[in-house]
Amino acid sequence: MELDVRGEMCPYPAMKAREALGKLPAGECLEVLTDHAPALSTVPWEGAKLNYRSTIEPAGRGTWRIRLEPAEGKLDQKQALAEISRRAAELSKG
């Protein structure tokens, strides 16, 4: 499933991602398209709280695709937050 939140600012991308994850069939992934750099940390963190791993890739100039997929086993929340913060900082610079 794809969720396009381009043009929306926090907290809306994270809120809409959380809502979409709640409706997502078991085992499926959510891809969130955003142009709001703070969403690079807030959207993955909402996913991590629901046990979804995230990857973030550039999807054009100033636009990113956040892929949230179900984690195998229980996510370590502290480790997930550290990785999300590191990756968001790295991507928002470029």
Instruction: Determine the mean pLDDT.
Output: 94
Q: How many strands, what sense, and barrel or not for the largest sheet?
A: 4 strands, mixed
* Low-pLDDT runs: none
Q: Count the helices. How many? A: 3
Helix content: 40-55%
Shape: globular
How many β-strands, per DSSP? 4
Q: Name the helix and strand elements from N-terminus to C-terminus, one letter apiece.
A: EHEHEEH
Alpha-carbon distance between the two ends: 27 Å
Q: Beta fraction of the residues?
A: 15-25%
Provide the spatial order of strands within the biggest beta sheet: 1-2-4-3
Structural class: alpha+beta
Rg computed from alpha carbons, rounded to a whole number of angstroms? 12 Å
Describe this structure in words.
By secondary structure, the chain is α+β, with helices and mostly antiparallel strands. 43% of the residues lie in helices and 23% in strands. It has three helices and four strands. Strands 1-2-4-3 form a four-stranded mixed sheet. Strand 1, helix 1 and strand 2 form a beta-alpha-beta unit. It is globular and about 35 Å long. The relative contact order is 0.20. The model has no long low-confidence stretch (mean pLDDT 94).
